[in-house]
Amino acid sequence: MERDGSVGVALPMLPLVAVCWAVAAATGEKVLPPPSNLNYSFIQICTLNWTWNPPENISSSCDLEYSSDILIDEVSQHKNEWRKSLFRVTDTVLNKEMRFKVRSECKNGNATDRSRWVETSVAPKGIPGTAAVGLSCVWHNLEYMLCKWHPGENASSDTNYTLFYWFDGLERHKECKNYSVSQGRFECAFSLTFPQTANRYPPISILVRDDSEKIMPICAIENPTTLVKPATPRIVKLSYVNSGIHLQWSESGTIPANCLSYEVRYHNGDLTPAQTIQVKFNSTSIPSVDPNSKYTFQVRAQPKVECYSSKFYSEWSEEKSIGENPDSAFNFLLIITIPLIVMVSTIILLVYLKRLKILILPPIPDPREILKRMFGEQNEDPQSCAKEDCVNGYDRLIKEEEIHSLILIETPESSNPEKEHR
Ligand SMILES: *[C@@H]1O[C@H](CO)[C@@H](O)[C@H](O)[C@H]1NC(C)=O
Ligand SMILES: *[C@@H]1O[C@H](CO)[C@@H](O)[C@H](O)[C@H]1NC(C)=O
Ligand SMILES: *[C@@H]1O[C@H](CO)[C@@H](O)[C@H](O)[C@H]1NC(C)=O
Ligand SMILES: *[C@@H]1O[C@H](CO)[C@@H](O)[C@H](O)[C@H]1NC(C)=O
Ligand SMILES: *[C@@H]1O[C@H](CO)[C@@H](O)[C@H](O)[C@H]1NC(C)=O
Ligand SMILES: *[C@@H]1O[C@H](CO)[C@@H](O)[C@H](O)[C@H]1NC(C)=O
Ligand SMILES: *[C@@H]1O[C@H](CO)[C@@H](O)[C@H](O)[C@H]1NC(C)=O
Ligand SMILES: *[C@@H]1O[C@H](CO)[C@@H](O)[C@H](O)[C@H]1NC(C)=O
Fold first, then answer.
1. Is residue 11 part of a domain?
2. Does the pLDDT of residue 65 top 50, yes or no?
3. 3-state SS, residue 249
4. Which residue has the higher pLDDT, 8 or 73?
5. Which residue has its alpha carbon closest to ligand 8 atom 12?
6. Is pLDDT of 309 > 50?
7. CA–CA separation, 410 vs 398, rounded Å?
8. Of the candidates 196, 99, 218, 182, which has an alpha carbon nearest to the alpha carbon of residue 141?
9. Are residues 203 and 243 in the same domain?
10. What ligand has the least distance to the C-alpha of 88?
11. Are residues 224 and 237 both part of a single domain?
12. Both 100 and 173 in a single domain?
């Protein structure tokens, strides 16, 4: 079966190879030499500079350009470029194989002459499955970036991942220092601010790695405007105005006011479903409300698409309420009276149960009392009188209680027929 499969794959390759040969033969005489000395170097944590030298012996009539392309894990990134310069700067991912290919293209009048491709690649370092997974970052209120990730499934549990970041404007990459680990998830926060006047933010490179060679590094390059999450608003004012309710909330402070819109969520009473309204500014009014009803509000902020291409809402603000539920006095009464009623009825029940117990199970009398009564009767019995001195027994019964215990010990022995036989 396996052989059949491999033959099946190999056969369709043949025509392709043949076509390549044919093309090479047809253009054989004027094949353009490719660029030479293709190489790369890291110029930043997640940025590569691919460099090459020009082909030799190029005719002066040639308008030379370089065409280059990028493949990640053999998949074209559709980032073909034609340039005259002898280098190309690209991002890198580090946890996948990145292949770079370049060729010379020569425009002689209206004909274009191309060289073969030359290529080189950067292979991932470290053990597969050890790179951080699910790396995601959120830029909180244009103030700090919070990144989270999980350890790779093949990484040892004591792996100490480190996060580095860089953006155009930083001389050197920096290390994020504020780490925390919760439920197996790593978190790191670093301050990220730009002058208030900036309306364009550079892409930010994030590298998560470990000092150990075994752990595969991973790079991510993010447009920070896609990561903006506004601060949670705080409702600062809630009042009745005319027949409506006016509410106002705090602004972000760092995000320009015209770059945020808001969502106000409110409900009337405790049972009605919440309504949501869209608001452009930091205050709004709900007209004609029921004055005898309690209204509860929450606000959250959303970045405007005109400013940031982020889809992160802020968290909902804390709830703030105005008015009282009409039945709240009744509720209060219930809160006080229900435990009271329960308490009183429990007491009544206990008392009643005690009485019931007396009726069903009369109080267990003192065993001594029973015995006392039994023997009192036995002694009057003429049959027992036959075994024991009847007069004596009767006399003792009349005597003090202390003596009765003596009888208790004496009588069973004397009335035991087995002992008498032995
Ligand atoms: C690539 O450049 C590095 C230095 O950046 C050098 O050590 C290496 O030999 C170069 N490789 C080739 C094939 O030129
Ligand atoms: C890339 O390398 C080339 C050749 O060393 C250099 O001229 C160019 O400035 C480098 N590009 C960047 C962005 O550093
Ligand atoms: C370039 O041309 C020179 C002289 O014309 C020749 O000696 C040399 O071999 C050529 N180099 C290449 C790479 O064809
Ligand atoms: C190239 O362009 C010239 C005119 O600029 C034209 O006469 C000629 O036919 C073109 N050649 C090809 C192969 O298109
Ligand atoms: C983890 O390691 C095993 C064995 O080396 C390998 O088969 C597996 O693919 C790795 N996991 C990942 C996510 O690469
Ligand atoms: C991670 O750091 C801790 C504390 O510094 C250390 O004990 C541990 O050995 C480190 N893990 C690795 C894989 O180096
Ligand atoms: C560390 O990050 C947390 C948020 O994850 C933040 O509240 C705290 O202020 C930060 N501490 C320092 C020293 O930056
Ligand atoms: C609401 O916005 C107005 C106008 O932008 C501003 O004057 C006011 O201070 C803001 N209020 C709060 C609570 O931020």
1. no
2. yes
3. strand
4. 73
5. 250
6. yes
7. 17
8. 196
9. no
10. 2
11. no
12. no
